[in-house]
Write a structure and sequence with these properties.
162 residues, globular, Mannose-Binding Protein A, Chain A, 10 strands, signal, alpha+beta, 4-stranded antiparallel sheet
């Protein structure tokens, strides 16, 4: 539990779901895809945008290394206002994909296999969905699901230096 709490302290929330913000929320193409609100900078974007933004910060997209970390981080994100209430539509991007790997999902940061992967029921399911997001789907509990890489979701970068 302590390790999960330490990892949690390394998280930098870069975005929240659109319902949290005053409208209009910035759209892709707006300067930096960011919204200044309550002293935070929140970002969202397509999977490639999230990977790039995290790398610009010398960080990586969030990936859970254990169930304890997943539970603690999910609670933390909910406490910060990430709603996770509207099925797939309230997902966050996760640092894993199957891009160029013939449906073998690996870590985006280094291509290594996922050490922990909690998939939602019947996931992954579509061959054309190569990126991974995290959501609570219809009471099946929280887990990963595959999604088109050009979908727009919030994202969290992690790095102890942030």
């Amino acid at each position: 539990m302590f390790q999960a709490a330490v990892r949690l302290s390394e998280l930098s929330l870069l975005t929240m779901a659109m319902t949290t913000f005053p409208f209009p929320f910035p759209q892709p193409g707006d300067k930096n895809n960011k919204c200044d609100y309550n002293g935070w900078l929140y970002f969202y974007g397509e999977y490639p945008v999230s990977i790039s933004k995290c790398r610009d910060l010398n960080a990586n997209l969030l990936v859970f290394d254990s169930n304890v970390e997943r539970v603690v981080a999910t609670k933390y994100l909910q406490d910060l206002g990430v709603p996770f209430v509207n099925s797939w539509f309230d997902s966050i991007w996760i640092g894993a994909s199957a891009q160029g790997t013939n449906r073998r999902f690996v870590l985006s940061k280094n291509g290594a296999p996922l050490s922990y992967a909690r998939w939602c029921f019947n996931q992954p399911d579509f061959n054309h969905r190569e990126c991974v997001a995290y959501a609570d789907f219809l009471g099946y509990n929280f887990g990963y699901h595959d999604f088109e890489c050009l979908g727009l979701f919030p994202f969290v970068c992690e790095n102890s230096a942030i």
